[in-house]
Predict the structure.
Amino acid sequence: MKALVDAIMGRRVTLGRVVTLRLVARNDMRAVEQIVREVMRFLDDQARPSEDWQLRFALCLRETVYNAVMHGNQNRRDASVDIEAQWHPDSRRAVLVVRDGGRGFDWKSALESERTQGADRVRGRGLVILAEMTEQVDVGSGEVRFTLSLPPPADGPA
Amino acid sequence: MLQSAREGILTLAPEQPLIALHEGELGADMAEALAVHAGQFSDVCFDLSRVREIDSRGVGLVVDLHRRCRQQGAHLRVTGVTPHIRRVFDLFQLGALFPVEEIVEPAGRGEA
């Protein structure tokens, strides 16, 4: 298990009101669940989101990291993946940024390609999940960023 | 993965999240169960009542199970689905491929 423990390192940074967790992980699918645990623990500390919100965010996080490991970095073991989880308390938004060594991709055409495949396909669903389960997705050169907001807090007891 | 075959129904019940980390193991378990019980079932029940998380690879596993069932002349039914997993299934209209039944919470849960 040592390789997995070594596969990730991170730190928290506070800039203004925005709190950020930065992780660097080896380009290894086995590191993904550790990344998910670290990011979800960070967001739980910051915002105490509902279980449903956490399941949704973790799903989108997994899909984004899979994409970076397998497509951006093309499964190269000598590559790494940078993950940045931001919590914006004023707008109650969580932003996830994943960077890899790739050149990026055409989000619109890749998404359209996934959408037009038959329901009985075995692969090719990650981008649809990202598009449908988040509020915003931005794809740049070697970078995918998505945003998911939390609902306003319920009023406390009078 | 828990499994049982009785009265023509093969029930498969994964105990791990349906995510990429477990894709190989779950796929092998499914294939083995279908082979071991071949000819003994006409229906397959995929019971997800112990599963809270799924990803694109997990969806692919369920679709692949559907394909394998059809190849063996059997019908797949997916049961015990949480609202989260249902939402993911609905993104891909999986209900058009096979019946999907949501998890039934015990009566009275959450009441004072």
About this structure: The longest strand of chain A covers residues 18-26. Chain A has one domain: 2-149.
